[in-house]
Design brief:
The structure holds two protein chains of two kinds.
Chain A (H helix, E strand, L loop, with lengths): L22 E8 L3 H12 L4 E5 L12 E3 H10 L2 H7 L1 E2 L2 E6 L2 E7 L11 E3 L2 H15 L2 E5 L2 E8 L2 E8 L2 E12 L6 H5 L5 E4 L4 E7 L7 E6 L8 E7 L3 E7 L6 H4 L2 H12 L6 E8 L2 E4 L4 E2 L2 E3 L5 E2 L8 H19 L9 H25 L4 H16 L1 H4 L32 E4 L2 E4 L8 E7 L10 E2 L6 E7 L10 E2 L4 H6 L6 E4 L5 E5 L4 H11 L5 H8 L2
Parallel strand pairs in A: 1-2, 1-11, 2-8, 5-14, 11-20, 24-26, 26-27
Antiparallel strand pairs in A: 3-7, 4-7, 5-6, 9-10, 10-11, 12-18, 13-16, 13-17, 14-15, 15-16, 18-21, 19-20, 22-23, 22-27, 24-28, 25-26, 28-29
Chain B lengths: L12 H11 L5 H19 L2 H13 L13
The chains are: A alpha+beta, B mainly alpha.
């Protein structure tokens, strides 16, 4: 059915591992979807080889996750595909909410200037995956094995052994660390006997991607109880290639197979788009959704990332964007442990940081779902009351919840932070480097970065890299615009670094490899910086660590 | 706790009570509920302090007889 995109076919290739004795690799990733591929490229960027197994031979079928957040784009930029995603993607800022016949409310994502990436772009998931596959190949460190289906998992204290089925028959494969990125129906999760806990929503939704030349603006339109689809909700959102995402609530009693048939779908779309609308069906899917997670994402040598660990409703774009933040959090830690630069205990912070972040996603997506799908007469009364009031009463617009869009997690209770008010991701800002326009964020992702905000008086270390122990701290000096130029320093020409990071001359911030702030100070004190770096590597006294881990 | 003002403050309660009932006249169950919901939202916004509204919620909920509803998911 798809007309705008032809799924590439990646050839199955026999691996030497299928012939020799049982092979063992440092890291195996199960699942070459968005999240598994991001993990593979991230680890490769940090010098870690991976084997990636996928039971299929192509990227995602259908557009699936289409809203990529600013944070995801920034992470993907580090992975080498952010620019492509921005260039191909549809940038949108305005959302409109309709109730019945009329528009009741619109919101602007308020694009603040001075960021390399916008708040969101819409892009079919298969593009992101296809580019990540190419990127993975280019690193030379990712062994991507298509049509390799995992059929058995034996997890031990010191590693994991997998049984794999291929067109050439089965073979065993061992690894030190396993990343389960095998999606909502994760085989690895079931093999380990881990249960999802949370809510299953009794509702069904139809996704219809259509190709049409239409004059609708590049905006997110959300309808509650529209005249063309009484009693239900509807969403219209633009994707590249003249593809439009239409999402129609169907109710629990709808027959998913019948609803997918064109003779059923087309009249629904004509009611929405007009009898004369000309469109072609691109992809149809009927789905239900859950808001739930497993208890812990680390189980010894196995890590769960993305949908294999947690699921949310689509309202808020917190699925794919949450999964990418999982890998962003995990990969630098795993790389340091593999390189002997951090102890295994650092890996426990993946749970300590990503579980609260996941719970925030689940909470927001559950609340959106409760608003969109009222469960009883009382919740419907409040929902409709909010919507009716919102047209005339501005205060009520803040109560309208058609999805609270994904934001980067603030790791406010992180055991890796030295002090309160940290754990946020560095906001981007425009800077000058050797007189040329540049961005702040690309300077923050290699190892730890000590950002010093300097004027002429500020003393900064002479070295650009502090070889303190085995994990380097890179020094990044950002100068006041009027200060004298220093070699290698960035210039805060518009003053936005100072404003967004809350920095005055002489003050410093320490960023982890995932661009989350983990320490700050008034005056540069190298012992304090090193201690903060050590804390962020999990090198703390047991007692203090144990105390902080209670979250 | 204890910031919700529960002293009698309305000079002529009978009149306001009548107005509340009057507002619901000729409304079906759903419309009635929606009216109450709007009223609550408007007043909550006027109060502007979620803690006070929660106090009122607790008092309002205290006397309710509950029954377990089937089909509610586990948290």
């Amino acid at each position: 059915m798809p007309k705008t995109y032809e799924n590439p076919v990646f050839a199955y290739r026999r691996s030497p591992d299928q012939d020799g004795p049982e092979a063992r690799h440092p890291v195996v990733i199960v699942g070459a979807g968005l999240v598994g591929l991001a993990a593979a490229v991230d680890l490769a960027e940090r010098g870690v080889r991976t084997v990636v197994l996928d039971d299929d031979e192509t990227v995602s079928f259908g557009s699936r996750a289409i809203c990529f957040s600013k944070r995801t784009l920034e992470i993907c930029d580090r992975l080498g595909v952010g620019r492509q995603m921005l260039d191909k993607g549809i940038t949108w800022n305005l959302g409109r909410v309709f109730f019945g016949e009329r528009e009741v409310y619109s919101f602007d994502l308020l694009p603040e200037s001075g960021h390399q990436f916008p708040a969101f772009v819409n892009l079919q998931q298969y593009y992101a995956e296809e580019w990540l596959v190419a990127r993975a190949a280019a690193t030379g460190l990712v062994d991507l094995r298509w049509r390799n289906r995992v059929t058995g998992v034996q997890a031990r204290d010191d590693g994991v052994t997998l049984q794999i089925e291929t067109p050439d028959g089965p073979y065993p494969l061992a690894c030190d660390w396993l990343l389960a990125a095998d999606g909502a129906k994760s085989f690895v999760r079931r093999e380990l006997g881990l249960e999802f806990k949370g809510q299953v929503f009794k509702d069904r939704f139809l996704i219809a991607d259509v190709v049409m030349q239409a004059d609708f603006p590049t905006e997110r339109w959300f309808w509650f109880d529209p005249p063309f689809h009484k009693g239900q909700s509807a969403l219209l959102h633009k994707q590249p290639d003249d593809v439009w995402r239409i999402d129609l609530q169907l109710g629990w009693d709808a027959d998913p197979e019948a609803e997918k048939r064109p003779e059923k779908v087309i009249p629904r779309l004509k009611a929405m788009l007009g009898e004369d609308a000309r469109f072609d069906l691109e992809w149809i899917s009927v789905y239900t959704f859950q808001c739930r997670r497993i208890d812990r994402f680390r189980h010894g040598r196995v890590f769960f990332v993305g949908d294999a660990a947690h699921q949310v409703s689509p309202f808020g774009a917190r699925g794919g964007n949450g999964g990418i933040q999982d890998t962003d959090n995990l990969c630098w830690k795993l790389a340091y442990v593999l390189q002997g630069k951090a102890q295994e205990s650092l890996l426990d912070s993946y749970d300590a940081e990503r579980i609260p972040a996941t719970d925030e996603n689940i909470l927001n997506s559950t609340r959106s779902t409760d608003f969109i799908t009222p469960k009883n007469p009382a919740s419907r009364a409040f929902r409709d009351a909010v919507l009716e009031l919102s047209a005339e009463q501005p205060f009520a617009r803040a109560w309208v919840n058609s999805g609270r869009l994904s934001k980067p997690a603030v790791l406010s209770d992180s055991p890796l932070s030295s002090g309160a008010g940290l754990g946020w991701t560095a906001p981007d800002a425009p800077v000058l480097r050797d007189g040329r326009a540049d961005w702040l964020l690309p300077h923050l992702h290699e190892d730890f970065t000590l950002l010093i905000y300097a004027d002429d008086e500020t003393a900064v270390p002479e070295e650009s890299v502090l070889e303190t122990g085995d994990v380097p701290i890179r020094v990044l000096t950002v100068m006041l615009p009027q200060a004298a130029r220093r070699a290698g320093a960035l210039v805060d020409a518009e003053g936005l670094v100072a404003e967004r990071l809350g920095l005055a001359p002489g003050q410093w911030l320490l960023f982890r490899p995932d661009q989350h702030a983990c320490a700050r100070g008034e005056m540069l004190d190298m012992a304090g910086v090193r201690a903060a770096r050590d804390r962020a590597l999990g090198r703390v006294e047991r007692a203090a660590a144990a105390q902080r881990m209670v979250v | 706790m204890g910031r919700l003002n529960t002293l009698g403050r309305i000079a002529a309660p009978d009149e306001l009570y009548e107005a509340l009932l009057e507002a619901h006249r000729d409304l079906d169950e759903a419309e009635s509920r929606k009216l109450d919901a709007k009223l609550i939202l408007l007043l909550a916004n006027h109060i502007g302090d979620a803690a006070i509204v929660r106090e009122a919620l607790d008092i309002a909920r205290a006397g309710a007889t509950t029954q377990t509803s089937p089909g509610s998911g586990t948290a």
